Amino acid sequence: MKLTLKIWRQKNAADKGGFATYVADHVSKDMSFLEMLDVLNDQLTEKGEDPVHFDHDCREGICGMCSLYINGKPHGPQQTTTCQLHMRSFSDGETITIEPWRAKAFPVVKDLVVNRSAFDRIIQAGGYVSVNTGGVPDANEIPIPKTVADLAMDAAQCIGCGACVAACKNASAMLFTSAKVSQLALLPQGQVERKTRAEKMVAQMDAEGFGACTNTGACEAECPKGISITNIARMNREYFSAVASSDNM
Amino acid sequence: MILDSKIPAGPLAEKWTKHKFSSKLVNPANKRKYDVIVVGTGLAGASAAASLAELGYNVKAFCFQDSPRRAHSIAAQGGINAAKNYQNDGDSIYRLFYDTIKGGDYRAREGNVYRLAEVSVKIIDQCVAQGVPFAREYGGLLANRSFGGAQVSRTFYARGQTGQQLLLGAYSALSRQVANGKVKLFPRTEMMDVVVIDGQAKGIVTRNLITGAVETHAAHAVLLCTGGYGNVFFLSTNAMGSNVTAAWRAHKRGAFFANPCFTQIHPTCIPVSGDHQSKLTLMSESLRNDGRVWVPATQEIAEKLRKGQIKANDIKEEDRDYFLERKYPSFGNLVPRDVASRNAKYVCDEGRGVNETGEAVFLDFRDAIKRDTRKIIEQKYGNLFDMYKQITGEDPYEMPMMIYPAVHYTMGGLWVDYNLMTTVPGLYALGEANFSEHGANRLGASALMQGLADGYFVIPYTVGDYLAQLAPTKVDENHPEFARAKEEVKQGIERLLKINGNKPVDYFHKRLGKIMWDKCGMARTEVGLKEAKADIQALKKEFWSNVKVLGTNEELNQTLEKANRVADFLELGELMVDDALNRNESCGGHFREEYQTPDGEALRDDENFAYVAAWKYLGEGKEEELVKEELVFENVKLTQRSYK
Amino acid sequence: MTWVTKTLNSTLGRKLIMALTGLFLILFLTGHVSGNLLLFKGDGGQAFNMYAKFMTTNPAVKLLSYLTYISVIGHIVYSIFLTQHNKSARPVSYSTSNGSSNSAWSSRNMGVLGTIILIFLVVHLQGFWAKMHWGEIPMVTYEGEEYKNLYLIVSEAFKQVWLVALYVVSMIFLGFHLSHGFASAFQTLGLNHKKYSPAIKAVGMVYCILVPALFAAMPLYIHFTSYTK
Q1: How far is B338 from chain A (nearest CA, A)?
Q2: Which pLDDT value is given to residue B334?
Q3: Could you say which DSSP state residue B196 is in?
Q4: In chain C, what are the domains?
Q5: For residues B203 and B486, is the Cβ–Cβ distance under 8 A?
Q6: In Å, what is the CA distance from B288 to each residue of A118, A179, B254, B339, B352?
Q7: Using CB atoms, which chains have 3+ pairs under 8 A with C?
Q8: Between the N and C ends of chain C, which has fewer C-beta atoms within 10 Å?
Q9: Topology of domain A3-110, CATH
Q10: Interface contact C95-A167, CB threshold 8 A
Q11: Which residues of A touch C197 (CB under 8 A)?
């Protein structure tokens, strides 16, 4: 396969950046998208050009480090992570446009690499159960209905890649935030801090400059882990009932 | 020099309790006066950092990823073992201890392994309290499964993403301490060196991966929780960024490296598809519960298959060789990882491998689907089948899967004593980065257990014992050793940037990987290992004269990061070969072809090799010195593993 | 009252206001369309005129009408706030984007649809509502009581083809706006449940077709019946 790649290049956060066009020939259908970029980078290096920087690590769809906005979609045409996207999803002669995630809260670091530490700060605001190591009850002390545990697991599968933000026309982080709020609101262990958690995490999400949800459902459609927007509804519920009834002024 | 493992005397079951009691405590008011550095934020690192911060120490946590949540522990699929005996099927702490030490082919310490089994039960409690959504039964209690051929059901799991859920649990505990101000987080920061003052670890040198700034950090203790070194093989199931740099630099500063040749090859990985391959993907070995492993009975049929003249489903029953079932009638497809892997290699070496490359065997669900219906198989393995299809483009419900072994885990690592302290006082190694619990082979679902045991339940006690012996005064970062170590790191970076050769870093990494895989992989010989040593030395020389690292230090420079890591892999590779050459026996993941039973099984030599091989770095270009720690077995009887 | 302002300024609070005002306006539309069905009665507008008088004089209806004005204004003002905020959340936009693959057109263009509906609303209010309240309207007497003959105004107005066309087209836009807005409001309120959400979505789909269709039928009916008189 021979492909034309239109890739966003930006030296650093301060640089304005722009697109550069490369030709990738000898692309095999069995390559993953990132392997195709590896080959391009080796060619660029041999020519003495700076290789294209992009985030990636586990390359098995679970660490959430890879990103890339490919042909107008986060993680490209399939509902998967970019590292699990293979070149058989493209056809010979195609032009592929590759951009970084775009959001005020995800500033570009270099080329296709963005800073997603806003997500860490949202979790730090309350995405945990405040228990210290040791001194906890036996694991089987509180039975949890299987359906509840399964629902919590559905939400807990979020890999924090940020595709929801990238896909959302408002760059909203509600799917990410709601996945954690939901997981802990569903489980008995999360009840103690339930109200404060919802309030604090939403406040942090807003402080980071993410947009508001307009229920387009794009996040759910693009989420590589299939996190459902029912979680956003649950977060809304959690938040409204928390602000109405908590002691926090 | 004698290595003191500091295993407490006394009965096995009382060692840890006794040790905890005899450990010194730090006064609660003084805890805030001690600083601890934790490098790596996987299961071991995140759990250690969170637990130490909860106790009151000031923690600095470092990771090279953009967020601590992305450490490669996240990729573990299967589960975590714990001797809870919730299933009433005869499990106990002693049984978990026994299985682990036997599974490790008797190359681990009894005391350490027993402690691991002992604290395993507390890990599950801790994780549930954090909100980890483990699988449950309809009655609301925790579900268990039998894993990796274990005779009891002691594995806890969260779908096929147990590692992810446990890591996110530890990450949430860590995040809470960041919010509390007790942990300062340094993402996208790579550890480049350890600062040793008067023989004690007092800090580290780091490189900020965004700005390139080389900085020093002082602390009373340094914990390396930096994972394994499987990427020395280039292709492995590890993340692309997983590296040995932190452990290796510590090794060069005096920490012994133990059993480096003990690597685990996992049998059920998706085969290599071409030269472009960057990593290998593991599929849970639970697949072997229902899938049957086979290759064509003859070379001719395999040849036709490889050329695409026939399809797998065209091959008649009598022309299929279910080689694991044939050789191991009682365990069949469920033989341990090392045995399954080695036999796959044998049939491929005989020219009966499948796939275009000839390096794959079939894992066939045809009979299972016939027996249980497709729906049941879909429920059990749906996500794995989907993943397989995503990567290979083939539908495993219709065509047999193809699998091949791949490097998955490294049992070797920095030598540590019972306190998890390396041979450098104040420098600790936790999780996969140390060598201590798995011997020569790790059992399924034990890696997660060890990482969390070390971080949550061992290090909070043992580090306290060490800190209590230090004065509660700030470590002086103006000590000349800090400046010296920093300068050396800068020079190392400059040296790489100056070479300006012709070949990209991956060119060298791939060649190193091939040498290691061919000659220090699943089966090793003296001749092959000697060749490997010479090859690595030559490659290392070429690397330092012909690698091309573009750009500068003062920017995000992924090539420079990689070059830095590959430079260390080249040195480690040689030590692995030395270690494999030294160990004239076969045990666990280490199989020396010269040492096998008449029917081709691993032949251990307990008389001469029941020791930990710890290697001491003596300087650039010098052979490392072997220091032996004899393994003492007071409770278990050493037997030959048999799966016939 | 810091917690109130804090909540109303949060993204979720603003969404709450959009949802509540939107739902109220949906209620209003339901009432409006039901009452206006009297236009189809064929009694020369008597029932319609009596209804119009009731709607402009009854105190309870008055109260509801104030709520409607507040809802309209609140819906518009908060949509401006939210749009501003959402725009600022992505200062650099994508060069290529393929929104149609992951979301419905109407859901991505609620602002545009809303603006069109607002323009229509101005024309509509100025033509009928303002006239009814403050304009010169011929009177008509039924059973000894005087009524403003709004029906006359309406039937005269809809003799103009362009106005009928404007109404019909606007109702199509309203339909699209509602097609997303109806179910979306429930989602924002957190009312998402696997038992009820499919029903909410179904009702929403019926509503967004039926109500605008009925509204659009009114000018069409009046226009075409005017030729037969």
Answers
A1: 23
A2: 87
A3: E
A4: 2-83+109-228 (1.20.1300)
A5: no
A6: 41, 33, 43, 13, 20
A7: A
A8: C
A9: Ubiquitin-like (UB roll) (3.10.20)
A10: no
A11: 230
